[in-house]
Amino acid sequence: MNQIVDRSRDIGEFVPQPDDDMLVCRCEEVTKGEIRKAVHDGMWTITEIRRYLRTGMGLCQGQTCARLVKGIVARELGISPAQLEPATARSPMRPIEMKVLGKEEVSDTWQ
Amino acid sequence: MAVKNKADVIIVGAGIIGCAVAYYLTKKGKSVIVLEASDNIGNGGSSRNGGGVRQSGRDPRELPLAMYGIEKLWPGLSDELGVDCEYHKEGNLRLGKTEKHLEILQGLTERAKACGLDVRMIDAKEVKQINPHLSDEVIGASWCPTDGHANPMVTTLAFYRKARMQGARFITGEPVKRLRKVKGRLREVLTESGDVYEGDFVLVAAGYASRKILGTVGVDVPMHVELMECLVTEAEPPMFNQMLGTAEADFYGHQSDHGSFVFGGSSGLELNNKDEGAKNSPGNAAITAPCICRGIMKYFPELADAKIVRTWAGYIDICQDGVPVLGFVDDIPGLVVACAFSGHGFGIAPAVGEQLAMLITEGKTSVDISGLRYGRFQAKI
Ligand SMILES: Cc1cc2nc3c(=O)[nH]c(=O)nc-3n(C[C@H](O)[C@H](O)[C@H](O)COP(=O)(O)OP(=O)(O)OC[C@H]3O[C@@H](n4cnc5c(N)ncnc54)[C@H](O)[C@@H]3O)c2cc1C
């Protein structure tokens, strides 16, 4: 956390790999190659990757692909996956209709 | 001190403003170091906003920047940065349901027109032609055909990406503690970690945190911070491409290229709301998202079944008089300020970036930003 990172550190060139077409985030249809390229574009954290490519932003909110994405980014940066913070989980944890969310009980404090 | 920490310009804060200035400066061949407190580029308001790129509703002092950006910079931005920023220039509807609403809209419209903006009042029938999904309760709107929206997260990161490609050095996890003058000129930036960075110019673009940082050289921008919130639905079939707002400002938003609807809004209790967030991330107040949903359903009955997949919150740095503080500061040569965006810094970010880069390299801007200078604040008597 809050580690000083110089984003100009040399991580080498992007080298195409045979499985770059592999779908990693199924909800948002993001491939391994796109994730690897994003790292070379400067997206060095899970949060940046997510905001840049939408990985983990779909219906499952990253429950399927989070670990895979982490592994790919870590390898590209030459660091351990443990050094990468997971993206922030956001409420509601399951998709919920507007008409349901809009109908919450108003507590006494705010009346 | 190590020479490696020297550059023509040191920028404090890698939000969209810091990233945009870094892009335009490196494009002009300047060396730039950007210091960012967070681990993530653009983790402040820049990745949390509603994506509105609007001129209507803006103060006459800010309007020239907004109009310039929309005319000259936004249309070519995706090509220039090499990333699709999802910019749409397909108009803004500000909706009204009551006579009182229409009065508010009329006032805003008159003021913007006087500044040369193409904005006009339209009746219920014309509103429906532009957006057939709206509730029949809408009786009129103001319509600005050149307003629009873009993807804030991608646009911020696109400026960062291109600036980095052009040689800007970004350092994350490096919070700035204070500024220091050397022989009367602001030259040094000191960080929490003990590092010292040195530049011919120092730009402070750290959102609300700018207040504390600028305070270390005696500059005090009168602003406060408020929590603002947004929500996003799952992808829906394409419905409309305009940006939307309401006279009461109860919600605003648009449908993204992805199909999801991004809506922002407030509960009205923002000044005293509870921030239920965790470290590094402001959190939503429990009452706000439901309130935004109720606002949306009043205008878009069809969306009642749309599912919310995420909600989030962000801080806005609200200036005493509602417009940003931009430019040089008298008495402190070398210092450039860009903060207090008051909840509308995304739409003007490309123009701010380009103009401040011009100010730093040429000593002047081509768009009049004199109404936004730091020296404008005075006690009432
Ligand atoms: C919910 C919401 C909705 C909004 N909707 C719109 C909209 O529709 N249209 C519009 O135009 N605007 C909108 N805004 C406003 C807009 O997001 C901001 O005005 C804009 O992003 C400001 O950019 P910035 O770079 O100045 O600030 P930020 O993005 O906040 O960046 C400041 C950066 O400085 C860093 N920093 C802080 N302290 C330090 C330190 N000590 N050292 C180094 N770095 C530091 C922060 O970590 C941050 O990354 C909205 C804002 C919010 C929160």
Provide a compact summary of the structure.
The complex is a heterodimer of chains A (111) and B (381). With 111 residues, chain A is of the alpha+beta class.
Overview of this protein structure:
- The complex is a heterodimer of chains A (111) and B (381).
- Chain A is built from four helices and four strands; from the N terminus they run E-E-E-H-H-H-E-H.
- Chain A is of the alpha+beta class and 111 residues long.
- Chain A has a domain at 19-86: Arc Repressor Mutant, subunit A.
- In chain A, strands 2-3 form a two-stranded antiparallel sheet.
- Chain A is globular.
- Chain B is an alpha/beta fold and 381 residues long.
- Chain B has three domains: 5-47 and 154-222 and 322-377, FAD/NAD(P)-binding domain (3-Layer(bba) Sandwich), CATH 3.50.50.60; 92-145, no CATH class; 223-319, D-Amino Acid Oxidase, Chain A, domain 2 (2-Layer Sandwich).
- Chain B has eight helices and 18 strands.
- Chain B has helices at 16-27, 63-81, 99-114, 124-130, 152-165, 210-215, 288-299, 349-362; strands spanning 6-12, 32-35, 52-53, 92-96, 120-123, 140-144, 148-149, 169-172, 176-182, 185-191, 196-204, 223-233, 243-246, 251-255, 261-265, 307-319, 325-328, 335-339.
- The N and C termini of chain B lie far apart (46 Å).
- Chain A binds chain B through residues 1-8, 41-45, 47-48, 51-52, 54, 57-59, 61, 85, 88, 90-92, 95-99, 101-104, 106, 110, and chain B through 37-43, 47, 153-154, 157, 160-161, 164, 169-175, 193, 195, 233-234, 258, 269, 278, 280-281, 284, 286-287, 289-291, 293-294, 296-297, 303-312.
- The structure holds flavin-adenine dinucleotide.
